[in-house]
Amino acid sequence: MAILFGVALIVLMTIISPPPSMQELVPVEGTLVSYDMFKDGDFRSGTTLYGLIQLEGHRGRYWNDALKGRSAGLLRDRIGARVRVLYQPGAWRPPMAGDAVKSYGLWVDGRELATAADALNFDRAVAFIVMPALALCIMGFGCLGLRNALRTG
């Protein structure tokens, strides 16, 4: 039963919260006023380091896959730089670290460091290829477990 719940949850998440289209994204640009580091995860699953940016004149903070892992400190010494990202207003995904929302693409002082299209393509691949494949694998293992349980029954 837990396996069916897990598969249903994976499928439901993809339906409820699909990656946005480029047309749904809104640009946010401003001077970088703060840059914090955030560790997401725990000792069992491992932690991922994220850079969280706050731009002058905008509420909250933004996180971005371009500022993750080894690249998390990319803007650490760039306070005062002009930064631009795209984000989805009203996105279903809960904020990270309290108020940091997911953003796509990254431009610093007019130079593109990460494209929004690449970030969207990655999120679509995870949502529409990786997650369904994971759901199928979980269902397969569940069927094998059920078959074995019925045999030894």
Question: What does this entry look like structurally?
Answer:
The protein has a domain of 93 residues: Beta Barrel (OB fold (Dihydrolipoamide Acetyltransferase, E2P)). A five-stranded mixed beta barrel has the order 1-2-3-5-4. With 153 residues, it is α+β, with helices and mostly antiparallel strands. The protein is 34% helix and 35% strand. The model has no long low-confidence stretch (mean pLDDT 85).
CATH topology of the domain at 24-116, by name, is OB fold (Dihydrolipoamide Acetyltransferase, E2P)
Order of SSEs: HEEEEEEH
Number of helices: 2
Estimate the mean pLDDT confidence.
85
Helix content: 25-40%
Biggest sheet descriptor: 5 strands, mixed, barrel
Q: What's the CATH class label of the domain at 24-116?
A: Mainly Beta
The total of beta strands comes to 6
Query: Uncertain runs with pLDDT below 50, 5 residues or more?
Result: none
What's the CATH architecture name of the domain at 24-116? Beta Barrel
Structural class: alpha+beta
The proportion of strand residues reads: 35-45%
Q: What oligomeric assembly is this protein in?
A: single chain
- So what's the overall shape? elongated
Q: Major sheet: order of its strands?
A: 1-2-3-5-4
Gap between N and C termini, in Å? 17 Å
